[in-house]
Design brief:
Elements: H1 2-17, E1 29-31, E2 36-38, E3 42-43, E4 48-55, E5 63-70, E6 75-81, E7 85-91, E8 94-103, E9 111-112, E10 116-120, E11 130-136, E12 141-143, E13 150-158, E14 164-172, E15 179-184, E16 189-193, E17 199-208, E18 213-215, E19 219-223
Parallel strand pairs: 2-10, 12-19
Antiparallel strand pairs: 1-4, 3-4, 4-7, 5-6, 5-8, 8-9, 8-10, 11-13, 13-16, 14-15, 14-17, 17-18, 17-19
InterPro entries: FN3_dom, FN3_sf, Ig-like_fold
Protein name: Fibronectin type-III domain-containing protein
Organism: Cellulophaga baltica
Length: 225
């Protein structure tokens, strides 16, 4: 009996001593900077520039997946690498977003970095505003209405020209939300009436003084019963 107990204890200790596979952590983005105009890179031709995207190494990571998205066309370019930088050709005079996913072949888990916006410099001097960043409620979130049966929508905006003039708030029960309100540039929140146990959809359209605009994309949230 003692031998059996000792053997079982040995198995327990040995099993617990094995290294667990740790999930990757999120990479910290370095360049291009958030909400900046990128003038660095190699000119390919009159319309295209080669930019080197850079980020810091993340823990427990074997490879990275860089995604660079054209914010005008919503077209992504994806590059896989085991380095902490990668080159991508991007159109001049165009706003982009970029992010990095950390991966490890020994783990099914991945970790995504923040998403940064930048404007690839060109000859155009009137910049399209960056899509508004939705801060609350985040997409897929379940929220509690206040005592007035309302939920507060909040967001932030950025434009290299600093000439945002208004935000259009689209909000409805439909996955293609309709225009609810137009707000001045210094207003980045709106209380909306809601009903319990219901899913709502919303997006923000940012408009600047030159008539340029951008959309945040559609977000959704559910109101708790």
């Amino acid at each position: 009996m003692r031998k059996i107990i000792a053997f079982g204890f040995f198995l327990l200790v040995f099993g617990c001593s094995k290294d667990e596979v740790k999930s990757p952590s999120s990479a910290l983005l370095v360049f291009p900077l958030q909400d900046s105009e990128c003038i660095t890179g190699a000119d390919i031709n009159e319309t295209t520039r080669l930019i080197t995207f850079q980020w810091e190494a993340s823990d427990n990571t074997q490879s990275y997946k860089l995604t660079v998205e054209n914010l005008l066309t919503s077209t992504p370019q994806i590059v896989s690498t085991n380095q902490t930088s990668a080159q991508v050709q991007v159109a001049k005079g165009t706003p982009y977003s970029w992010s990095v996913v950390s991966e490890n072949a020994k783990s099914s888990a991945t970790a995504k970095s923040e998403t940064w916006n930048f404007y690839n410099a060109g000859t155009v001097r009137s910049y399209i505003p960056f899509p508004a960043t939705i801060t609350s409620p985040i997409s897929g979130e379940t929220v509690i209405r206040d005592t007035n049966n309302e939920v507060k929508l909040t967001w932030s905006g950025a434009d290299l020209d600093s000439d945002i003039v208004s935000y259009e708030v689209y909000f409805s029960l439909n996955s293609t939300p309709t225009l609810m309100a137009t707000l001045p540039e210094n207003t980045t929140e709106l209380n909306v009436s809601v009903v319990e146990n219901t899913v709502y959809y919303w997006r923000i359209k940012t408009i600047d003084a030159a008539g340029n605009s951008s959309s945040s994309g559609v977000y959704s949230f559910k109101v708790l019963e």
